[in-house]
Amino acid sequence: MHGEKFEKFYDMKKLAEAGGGQERIEVQHSKGKLTARERIDLLLDEGTFVELDKYVTHRHDDTETKKFYGDGVITGFGRVNGRKIFLYAYDFTILGGSLGEMASKKIVKIMDKAIKVGAPLVGILDSGGARIQEGVMSLDGYGDIFYRNTTASGIIPQITASIGPCAGGAVYSPAITDFIIMVENVGQMFVTGPEVVKEVLSEDVSFEELGGAIAHSTKSGVAHFVASNEYDCMEKIKKLLSYLPQNNIDYPPSLESNDDPNRVDPNLIKILPENPYQPYDIKEIILNIVDDRDFFEIHEGFAPNLIVGFAHMGEKTIGIIANQPMVLAGALDIDSSNKASRFIRFCDSFNIPIVTLVDTPGYLPGTNQEHNGIIRHGSKLLYAYCEASVPKITCIIGKAYGGAYIAMGSKNLKADVNFAWPTAEIAVLGPEAAITIINRRELKTAKDPKATKKKLADEYRKKFANPYIAAEKGIIDLVIDPMETRPMIIQALHSMSGKKETGPWKKHGNINL
Ligand code: HXC
User: Is 119 a catalytic residue?
Assistant: First the structure.
């Protein structure tokens, strides 16, 4: 029955699923890359992928350009660990995954659906950028995608994997999404490629140096994660999704844990050196207090003087922000301010409570920072904390000086519960800086300047650099025994769940970008 029609159906299916053909698939494999379909299979739960627009082809006038079914991008929906997602994966075997009019329409269709139903959107990039043969219609398509990315921002989580070139227009859609994962030695993102750089600036630079995973995860901050290969990339996307809600009116899923929420650890204090100038790894403290020592760090290689990432506490997803005394003594600078601000805004958009651990000597001084805009960028951190209406719990562990004390989730920025360890040093300036100002005359006339300096600094530290002045004023809610940090934070998170906070109506604020 209907034999001929079925024959045609299977022929068409086979043809469409072959993408740019066997030869190009082999070239893709020879570059160490999987095909778009293989990538989708790795990401989604088996048998859940439903492809849409499989038979779409380009419709521009250029008769020279061969028509391929799918038009260079595979789109559809499926499930990751049982939860629905929408996705698109550029197919490099078809015209280098370049974006033409119809390919963009396919992507837009998926994006509109994801926004309508409130499900995460994953984009897998491997693309030569705007399809040159389609001229302005390709640019028109990018514009439509950027618009959807912006509309979706704050409504559904958007994740991008860069597994191949992302040239020209192909970079800006990812840039608007929430997280970018690049595969080492494979993903490359650049607005203008090495040839143009050479022509315009006479600079010799390789693809990898210009826009590889290392450059973007350490220097530009474009990439949030680096995956060692495509398998690792898909595992990272799955792990990331596991912390997130489906949309902005949903809550993140809980993760069952046998880690006792009331677990106390008398050894926790030992991580903090007695000498406040000695560095230590704040990650040790993070791992100690979260469920099962499981911390999913974001932007690991970028601005490592501040750490952000997801974890669970009491089985609930939280976002952690912590100064890292191992790098730049934990000082705040331009990059760390940007990193933390964007993370706070993500958490706030998606109902993820924020836990802040503080140990910072202040904002990093110097002409480099000032001239590159530490005032502008540093202010974002204040803005992001003030604006965030999710539960905010702060714990000051060590230094909290000056503007950095205020910026790191202080009471004035409407943190809900502010704890401090007995080791907290909360003051306008650190002892050494403070005494050079308030004891200037004494220091000038001192017979033994070194000894006098030490004596004055010790006196200052005793008098000002402690948590009790702030606790007397109620801007620290409680000075806690460090061993109780985990149960205290979990109790605080529990008490603040269901928090509702609304400010006066406005269209949107004007964060200092
Ligand atoms: C049409 C393209 C294409 C493009 C690649 N191809 N890019 N076709 N439009 N933009 C085709 C190639 O002709 C080739 O077709 C196939 O894809 C594979 O490309 P190769 O060059 O053989 O692959 P490879 O050596 O791996 O190099 C990949 C590449 C390179 C680095 C991406 O192709 C490249 O530099 N492409 C151009 C990048 C670019 O400048 N894009 C436009 C940016 S302008 P055959 O038939 O031989 O297999 C832009 C503006 C948008 O995007 C701005 C919006 C804001």
Answer: no
Cα of 165 to ligand 1 centre, how many Å?
9
Nearest CA to ligand 1 atom 17: 96
In this predicted structure, the answer to whether residue 72 has a pLDDT above a threshold of 90 is yes
Give phi and psi for 435, each to the nearest 5: -70, -30
Task: Please report the domains of the chain, with CATH numbers, ordered by start residue.
Answer: 2-243 (3.90.226.10), 268-430+466-495 (3.90.226.10), 431-464 (no CATH)
Q: What is the pLDDT of residue 113?
A: 98
| Beta-bridge partners for 307 | 322
Tell me, yes or no, if the pTM score tops 0.90.
Answer: yes
Residue with the bigger pLDDT between 78 and 452: it is 78
The amino acid at residue 107 is: I
In the predicted model, what is the mean pLDDT of the chain? 95
The pLDDT tens digits for 127-159 are 999 999 999 999 999 999 999 999 999 999 999
Look at strands 295-298 and 306-313 and give their pairing.
Answer: antiparallel
Nearest residue (by CA) to ligand 1, atom 9, is 131
Return the best residue to mutate from 22, 31, 93, 95 for the ligand 1 pocket (most ligand atoms within 8 A of CB).
95
CA distances from 123 to 1, 29, 88, 438, 498 (A): 40, 20, 5, 57, 32
Residues contacting residue 64 through CB under 8 Å, at least 6 positions apart? 133
DSSP conformational letter for 243: H
| 288-325 per-position pLDDT tens digit | 999 999 999 999 999 999 999 999 999 999 999 999 99
CA 20 to ligand 1 center in whole angstroms: 14
Of 20-29, 362-371, 434-443, 488-497, the least confident:
434-443
Atom of ligand 1 nearest to the CA of 168: 52
Among the options 404, 407, 424, 457, which is catalytic?
Answer: 404
The residue nearest atom 47 of ligand 1, judged by CA position, is 95
H or E segment to which residue 88 belongs: strand 83-90
pLDDT in tens, 171-223: 999 999 999 999 999 999 999 889 999 999 999 999 999 999 999 999 999 99
Q: Annotated catalytic, 96?
A: no
User: What residues flank ligand 1, with Cβ below 6 Å?
Assistant: 95-96, 98, 128-133, 139, 142, 165, 167-169, 172, 193
Residue tagged active-site, from 19, 164, 168, 430 = 168
Q: DSSP states of 293-308 as a string?
A: G-EEEESTTSSTTEEE
